[in-house]
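User: I've been going back and forth on whether these two constructs are worth ordering. Before I decide, could you fold them both?

Assistant: Sure. I'll take them in the order you sent them. The first construct and its structure tokens:
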Amino acid sequence: MKKIFLLSTAFALVLSFQACQTADKKSATTKDSVAGDTNMVNGNHATGAESTESGVDEAGATFLRKAAIGGIMEVEAAKIAQKNAKSAEVKDFAAKMLTDHTKANTELKALAVNKKVITPDALPADDQIHLDEMKKMTGTAFDKHYMVMMVTDHEKTVALFKLGMQNRDQAIKSWAGNTLSVIESHDEMAKKIVTNMK
């Protein structure tokens, strides 16, 4: 009888411990997405050896997060452009954005996981609202809006990646440098298309 009582007590303790852990993880993950907690790894606070082991400073983590948001935006905007654009040139440009930024996003995610940095999987509300508005646009009006947006976005992204190249972490530096050349070519293409529209 004692054995049964002890077993059921132990089982209840294990269950309540797991429930607490799950609740902690949920609240920690929510805190991370809202407050931008930089010491979060898979919903848990990373301290001591984990955070120093990754070797990523705050600037590196911030770069990865900003690059992730930019990359998601490029992919989602390109998907809309492939449906709503009128110009074949704009549609071709969007197809290139989709291919190149999907590849870059995959590389970034792997790098962030390796460095124990949580990056966003969705856009901030303002960016999502902008995309939702773009879905309502079509034809020449869409083409102009999308391409002007691409010039502005790529100029900001070039500046961001130049900053990323100065990071002390060698893997971040290297990825930022390799990806920068692709982004600069996008910037040139976008500017040419906008010039031709005028």
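The second construct, handled the same way:
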Amino acid sequence: MATVLQALDELSATDTDGSGASATTGSPIIGLAGARLPIDRATGQPLPVKVRAGTVWQLTDNGRMDVLDTSAQLAELRARVDHILDRIAANSRLTAAGLGTLDPTALPSGYALQLALGPLDSLVAAMRLARTHKYVVLLRMVQRLHQAGQAEGWPAGESFPARLMWGPHTPTDRAAVLDEVIKAVGAGVLSVETGIRTEPSKLLHSRGRNRRQRRCA
């Protein structure tokens, strides 16, 4: 976490520097030499010069106007923001694809996107693994509470082994996966258990809907 927090602090500082650079780029600092500036009649001092659209300054023969150009620094700061975001994505294992900063046109195929999400997949799996045993105990406790309360339709005896199945944490083409699972299970290539693990929510929803249709028929 320390490396991620450091990168976030650098990102905040870079945004502050970029804001200052954009201010001097949009309203640049101008140096005038040999300009005929308006004079304040009360004090006899030159009036402050402001840059406005359509402003005209009268310069002498040797007059000169110099503009401080900070656009190069602004471009460098913007590039540094992208660099820090890449560091945050790498250090946190969220990846640029997970943060949504990856250009979709830069990926040649969906398989390349799946490989880009590899570190995020391992991070999510590690975070879920830490509580896998606790979820098993939780489901066993729920069953025992139903048995102790003699809930209707709940069998007595030993608790059934149960575990929590997580769905995909990234967007997937569920219609295509569901069609593939149904064909594979129907052809005997995949077992029902493997099909449920592939797309549990869609498969269960489809099977429940088919049962309701058969009951209505």
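Notes on the second construct follow. Confidence is low (pLDDT under 50) at residues 200-217. The CA atoms of residues 42 and 48 lie 14 Å apart.
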